[in-house]
Design a protein that fits this description.
About 50% of the residues lie in helices and about 20% in strands. With about 400 residues, the protein is α+β, with helices and mostly antiparallel strands. It has 2 domains: about 200 residues, no CATH class; about 170 residues, no CATH class. Helix 2 packs antiparallel against helix 8.
Length: about 400
Amino acid sequence: MMTQLKQIISVTAMNLRSLPQRLAASVVAVIGVGAVVGVFAGVLSMASGFEKTMLSAGSEGTAIVIRAGSSSELSSGIGNNQVQVIAEAPGVVKNEQGAILSAELFVLVDIAKKSNNQDGNVPLRGVQAGAFQVRDNIAIVEGRMFDTGKNEMVVGRAAQQTFSGLDVGSVIPFGLTEWTVVGIFENDGSVSESELWTDVRVLQSIYRRGNSFQSVRVKLESPEAIEAFTDFLKEDPRIDPDVYSEKAFYSQQSETLATFIRVVGYPLTVLMAIGAIFGALNTMYSSVSARGKEIATLRALGFGPLSILTSTIIESGALAVLGGILGGGLAWLFLNGYTVSTLNGASFSQVVFDFAVSPDLLVQGLIAAVIIGLVGGLFPAIRAVRIPVSAALREL
């Protein structure tokens, strides 16, 4: 066993030392695998970044109530009297002013993107005073909070960086009404930062929504309190709700787009991987052909078939791993943190998010590279061990 291991190490070292003699073919193989891993990490980092942005806004300790059967806030409707029912439910955190909640209205406004001057659907959300209490880790970082009863708004940092005219002090028209931006807020890069917020009563008046809302966010005493909270509302005939934890709600909202990206990304990666395998096969066949006499001579000197086969596969795997590191490194360098906006099909609004080339994606890419290397090196390795010893002996 030890002799076999020494043979494998010896032959593998010799193969790797001879790589500079086959530099062009080796570089082609490395680039091919690197392209596969780079595309894999790049495409799936979109899904990863989108989910991260959506889910980072979610808390198990906050509940969202919408009308039963509604697919999103846009299609929901909740009356003022129903908000009072929600406020009376068990499990809701209360302070001196009453239940900590925010009944909200959600409309879409067109604002030009800075990148291409094309209009995008941006969420303009009417909120109540409790909006900052029911959401975790949210704060005004520039300017001030809007005054109730005025056409003022605060905007999320991501929206301010992506869309035109949203700096503090800017005045922006929506329809026949002008709004003044008075503050910027941040929320750990969550989907909330893609929104504009104003006083819900002002928004109801301007958009003629009467006394209606579309969703109610409620701060719960604990994540476990959602069960009693939900049961109470389901049993009350005055309201017909669907209740979600904030985390579950945003998980559902992100699922469709993230799944679509993956459905596109994985087959694309497989197709490119097939091409990379053929590239690796070509490289390793060329390597075996160039070293045919050398391999047969090793066989004549007593090196076993297993050492030849294993060393050839290791050489192919090493080139593939190098390509995987190159592709993953470039994807992380150029794409990780790259900011884009896309349409969230659940709400028909733009969501600003960053590509997230996560360690998990890099590991998956490296595993794919190893598989490509092993498959690409297997058949050339089998050919190497079948080179007849007599071929080398005749040439000596």
